[in-house]
Amino acid sequence: MAASADDVAPSTASAYLDPSYWDARFGKEAYYEWFKDFSHFRHLLAPLLSPSLSVLEVGCGNSRLGEELLREGVAGGITCVDLSPVAVQRMRDRLAAQGTKGVDVVVADMLDLPFEQESFDLVIEKGTMDVLFVDSGDPWDPNPTTVDNVMKMLKCIHRVLKPEGVFVSITFGQPHFRRRFFEAPEFTWSVEYSTFGDGFNYFFYTLMKGKRSLESSSYQNILPAAPRINMVHEELESEDFIFLTNLDEP
């Protein structure tokens, strides 16, 4: 029987940073899609797919995105990683029970990915990076630990992407909060984004390695003035809203 939201939701947002929380959660919960399932953003992701792609999903949890990519015809190898050995084993068991082949599930830390340089054509994260921001303080000036961990994650992803590979980040993080990280000087990717969702926007960032422009390199020099910030940690209709940043006009 599937666990209810009350059974698995943490008492505080900072619990999302505790690996033991995820092990306990995945021991109870069979399935949960952070930031909507594939059907909600298929129109944005499908144009980036082709049969020959090698794909890495970072922070797979108990999502079914890997299986959806298989159904879309991706046959170059799909690797799903998660820090939780409980999540990894349960996904392996699920795939075996279904007779699904072509998805490799690996225990790995997104801050230290165990793959060779330039291994993947496409890297996807969906809500995984948002976890690093749950205890960040002021989103306009995150604490040093948050900044360090986000940059470690992005450097790992940039390293394992092939030349002209694509990184897709699906997040609540608004451009004025994310671009300072995505457009750091050490990265060569271009940054574009779209939105999806009804009522609350999810951001779908597409970063193409080796395609950085001079305009993006100067973006950090033209950041808008910071409005007053309230961080809203509400459950609403799903846990996604734990990551929602609410900007109040001054």
Automatic annotation (TrEMBL):
Entry keyword Aminoacyl-tRNA synthetase: no
Highest taxon in the source lineage: Eukaryota
CDD domains: AdoMet_MTases
Domain Methyltransferase: 51-173
Biological-process GO terms, alphabetical: methylation
InterPro entries in alphabetical order: Lys/N-term_MeTrsfase_sf (IPR051419), Methyltranfer_dom (IPR025714), SAM-dependent_MTases_sf (IPR029063)
Entry keyword set: Methyltransferase, Phosphoprotein, S-adenosyl-L-methionine, Transferase
GO molecular function: methyltransferase activity
Catalytic reaction annotation: N(6),N(6)-dimethyl-L-lysyl-[protein] + S-adenosyl-L-methionine = N(6),N(6),N(6)-trimethyl-L-lysyl-[protein] + S-adenosyl-L-homocysteine + H(+)
Classification via Pfam families: Methyltransf_31 (PF13847)
Record family assignment: Belongs to the methyltransferase superfamily.
Function per UniProt: Protein-lysine methyltransferase that efficiently catalyzes three successive methylations on 'Lys-36' in eukaryotic translation elongation factor 1 alpha (EEF1A1 or EEF1A2).
Name of the protein in its database record: EEF1A lysine methyltransferase 4
Protein's organism: Miscanthus lutarioriparius
